[in-house]
Amino acid sequence: MKGNKHPYIILSAAMTIDGKIASKIGDPDLSDEEDWKAVHKLRTEVDAIMVGKGTILKDNPKLHINYYNHNGYYRIVLDSNLSIPINSRVIKYRPEVYPTIICITENVSMEKIKDFQLKNITIIKSGRGSRVDVVKLMQILYQKGIKKILLEGGGNLNWSFIKDNLVDEIRLTIAPWIVGGKDAISLVEGEGFTKMIESPRYILSDVNHRNNYLILKYKKVK
Ligand SMILES: NC(=O)c1ccc[n+]([C@@H]2O[C@H](COP(=O)([O-])OP(=O)(O)OC[C@H]3O[C@@H](n4cnc5c(N)ncnc54)[C@H](OP(=O)(O)O)[C@@H]3O)[C@@H](O)[C@H]2O)c1
């Protein structure tokens, strides 16, 4: 990324004490109302919210804002083969306020792309590999005027951003639950680093707690 401008990335997640962002069957219900309010507040401060295909398939989120008045932002989904259901809420729910961008690889057929474009979805192609090239994508989004992104998971997409050292800030809520399970998705999945020294470096910039929830903020060491 040297010399290239790219969006500021805030990774936001709620996780259990044991680092899981959903249970083994995909139950994601670990935030309380206060936490949702904080997430929605954060959404008012960015140009786009980004999630991976897995989160769309499991949770079918609207990625909207309650609690605050707001003019909207982009919803961005990374879906290499353009395979999310065309009736997903991220496509159907209030596109006039939250326009949706789906990021895919170069390998998707024009026919499939047209189906989504007919629903007013913007398609961005990034990379020729099996998955969306996130480094290249960051440059494309920046050029499109997207300067600040809230990365809302899930674990596999988080890894791609951590691996390439693209996360500038982390807002983490630790909920007072422990669910265990090797198949329960962790905050960061993927291949993982071999040594601790390979990890991007963060400093703890803020700590708060309420109702047994712990709220942590980290910033990347420049
Ligand atoms: N607690 C929280 O804060 C929170 C937040 C969000 C999600 N979640 C939970 O997380 C779970 C979903 O996480 P997940 O890890 O299964 O899915 P995910 O990270 O949402 O999506 C991963 C998928 O995105 C696609 N993708 C495209 N380009 C990618 C790239 N460069 N790197 C990584 N993925 C890329 C891949 O599918 P293709 O190869 O087909 O493109 C990949 O399988 C759900 O259970 C959800 O409830 C929890």
Provide structural commentary.
- The chain is α/β, with parallel strands linked by helices.
- The protein has a single domain (8-18, 28-220), classed as Dihydrofolate Reductase, subunit A (3-Layer(aba) Sandwich).
- It is 22% helix and 25% strand.
- The protein has 6 helices and 9 strands; from the N terminus they run βαβαβαβαβαβαβββ.
- The chain has helices spanning 33-43, 53-59, 89-92, 110-117, 134-143, 155-163, and strands at 8-16, 48-52, 74-78, 100-104, 122-125, 148-151, 169-175, 202-210, 213-220.
- Strands 5-4-3-2-6-1-7-9-8 form a 9-stranded mixed β-sheet.
- α2 (53-59) links the parallel β2 (48-52) and β3.
- It starts with 7 loop residues before the first strand and ends with a strand.
- It binds NADP nicotinamide-adenine-dinucleotide phosphate.
Radius of gyration: 17 Å
Arrangement of strands in the largest sheet: 5-4-3-2-6-1-7-9-8
The topology string of helices and strands comes to: EHEHEHEHEHEHEEE
Name of the CATH architecture: 3-Layer(aba) Sandwich
SSE class:
alpha/beta
- Main sheet specs: 9 strands, mixed
Number of helices: 6
Strand content: 25-35%
Outline type = globular
